[in-house]
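A brief tutorial aside. Many learners find it easier to grasp structure tokens once they have seen a single protein encoded end to end. The record that follows does exactly this for non-reducing end alpha-L-arabinofuranosidase. Read the sequence first, then the structure, and try to relate runs of similar tokens to stretches of the chain.
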Amino acid sequence: MKRTKLYKKALLAACLTATGYVQAQQSAPIVVKASQIVSDVQPTMWGVFFEDINLGADGGLYAELVKNRSFEFSRPLMGWKAEQDFFDESALQVLNRLEQNTANPRYLRVTKNSNDTHLSVTNEGFRGMGIKKNLRYDFSVLYRKPAAGISITLELLNTTGKVIGTAVVPVDVAGNNWQKAAVSFTATDSASKGSLRVAFKGNGSIDIDMVSLFPSDTWKGRPGGLRADMVQKLADMKPGFIRFPGGCIVEGFDLSQRYQWKKTIGPVEERQLIINRWNFEFPHRAAPDYFQSFGVGFFEYFQLADDIGASPLPILNCGMACQFNSAELVPMDQLDPYIQDALDLIEFANGDVNSTWGKKRAEMGHPAPFHLKMMGVGNENWGPQYLERLALFTKAIKAKYPDFIIVNSSGTDPDGQRFDYLNTNLRAANADVIDEHYYRSPSWFLSNAGRYDNYPRKGTKIFGGEYAGHSDRVVDGKRQNNWQAALAEAAFMTGLERNAAVVHMASYAPLFAHSEGWQWTPDLIWVNNLQSYGTPSYYVQQLYSLNKGTSVVPALVNGEALKGQDSLYASAVVDKNTKEIILKIVNASATPQTKDIVVEGAAGLSKNAVLTVLGSQDLYTINSFDNPAAVSPVTSQVTLSGKNKLHYTAAPYTFSVIKLSMGAR
């Protein structure tokens, strides 16, 4: 930690050159033309992409601590361990009421034949349960019991089996109808890998279902809500949009596993659990306990977007399963239900409370509309089979909602025959937005900083929907989110910002990863059961989002955009609301680069500017739970050397944001 602090001090010293030059070669100045507006920057420019991968939802964002709470996994007692001191094979039975309840058919019948014996089931949680000392925990269960005689007690356990919290569950009502019992209690100690024991006392039989345990410190204190520290990481980015629910899970391995939004709303006990495709996608990172409970469903996604001030961007299945897996298709003459789902979703988000789907939204606690303005049709789909299905969606949506924005897939890669075919045909159809994905090496990002310089300014816009610099294989786990990748992403993003007339949205992917449950690396935010931290890439994304500005202005060297000359990359925006000029500079080289920054067309520049620097002398530096701020922003104040000039040295391997105030007196 001391070494990190010393480096950051040295980093600032290397970057502050207002009082004189440092030992570095100075070349032509960076000229920022503050009055020459190139284009507007969309409010949605920088956003986040969420997919339930890497235990992103269950075991992550969704704060539920009990795994397989409704016994619906393919192995009904997965995650549960039975304990009894008198062996009785009939003590625990999983029953199936499929004909009566297709969404939640299974439940557990517990039978205890003696007052003097121990019988319990213990839930292991998602790679354990994160328990915090002195925090209240809220337990609930659905139950029914034919007669009095059996009771339930709870014990929170730490890793060694020590009891760190107890409660008695009030299952007092006897009869054949399902009841809900709830109790709250406080943990007496912390545990990173705790567990919950549900013990049965007395003599008799009881049925249980939806066994649930939530911490009380959820986001906004909502019962059954989201994990607060993870949401706070998103809120701290101030994203312009949130894309959900994916990603490949939208498609499913086959269509039976596709994401169906209507099955993710309403009471949680009525949301039908399905397998998560990341359960088995990578055999060497298989997660046989990875399912989707949909505790985070479409209502919660919309609510989350509303909470953090982001525009919602849902992605819907277009009648195609994953083309890498099964390539299953819905016949064209059977596509109407899929299209109706899209139309109904717009009504669910925006409809009057008296409309069919607007009423359902209101019943869930949000009578006000969610102001949905855009939707993706398909995810990484390709070929003529995609285009013909997309055309039917587009016709139906535009007929009812002419101004609604439809995001179109460009497939899996940013180039090649598949991309060219889609790009050509989508532009010919005057598509609103094309979603481009690029998971590539850092060198690719550096060399593609000018990718959009020659894209058409009018017509179809671009969504950089999924991108990340990969210094290693995505399923290797080595060098996770190192500074080399983040620095290259920062350089590439200068090109996105410079071309905001073309690029209206961009988001890094994936968003979350559990340290013991990941399938894909790198990722933006890492979590364990008690902690979370942002990666170097997180801070790059955050600095862009917090310094978005309202208008792009030129930042030129010798009359040209700075996109790799001398390993420097730059872009500039003006914020008309704060009256600031914001310059972003990336030095991707191992040597310092000195520049005069000259501002033209801005009256009354303040003599002081705000400098924020992100960097590391080691390209393979990563953040971690032990050192979450190894690569993190350092902010200071610098002084202009003249009326409209700043001497600046970009230290090696740094991303710098310089904010200059206009209109000072």
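Self-check: The two ends are 42 Å apart (CA to CA). If you spotted this yourself, you are ready for the next section.
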